[in-house]
Amino acid sequence: MARARARSAARRVRGRGAVPVGEILSGLRAAWPSAECALRHEGPFQLLAATILSAQCTDAMVNRVTPELFRRWPGPAALAAAPAAEVEAVVHPTGFYRNKAKALRGMAAALLERHGGEVPRTMEELTALPGVARKTANVVLGTAFGLSEGVVVDTHVGRIARRLGMTRETDPVKVERDLQALLPREEWTMFSHRVIHHGRRTCTARSPRCGECTLAPLCPSAAREGAAAPAAAGAGGRSRP
Ligand code: SF4
Prior knowledge:
CATH class of the largest domain: Mainly Alpha
Distance between the termini: 32 Å
Shape: elongated
Order of helices and strands: HHHHHHHHHHHH
Structural class: mainly alpha
Number of strands: 0
Bound molecules: iron/sulfur cluster
Strand content: under 5%
CATH architecture of the largest domain: Orthogonal Bundle
Number of domains: 2
Number of helices: 12
Helix content: 40-55%
């Protein structure tokens, strides 16, 4: 059944050809053996807060802000009780600071009220928290708890999946559906980590370095002699959820 779904997804995105999933996974593993979540954190609560802050913001900026955030409000009780203006001032550099401060305080309050101050381990419970959509929940479930509930699809994952012929979709939910059908479940978390690394360092949005890419022999978008990949391969946007 799972194999049939994978074959169906492959046909949908590559016509009669098949997506060389095993080779793509091997190439990513060889290129980025120790890829991991770039958001610095200790434990599920910090990862959840950092991922909320990472919307429309680089991980580097989030990592500059979170030490002060967690120093002042180290857990849900402290953060839920923190004055809004003070949280806003701390998270200001990450952009959309009013919404993010509201989401952080609301998330912390909801953890206290519904989950005894702990981060829940299900998609349904996580996405019911303020400021937490499916992508954020996937980050927390996969990275903090080692649970493969979904594939994290950010701008890098979406762009590279299209370039590799793994999907034609642009909607992240549909991209995730195609990737789930193609990839073995146990690979979902590391695939995202490695593709995000690949997107930052090699398969960048504007100037993919096809000439030095380990996936080039497998990639229908590989440009000749390292020239920019075809526009149809898909353009990317800002970094990160
Ligand atoms: S060959 Fe080029 S377009 Fe394909 S994954 Fe590598 S860098 Fe990206």
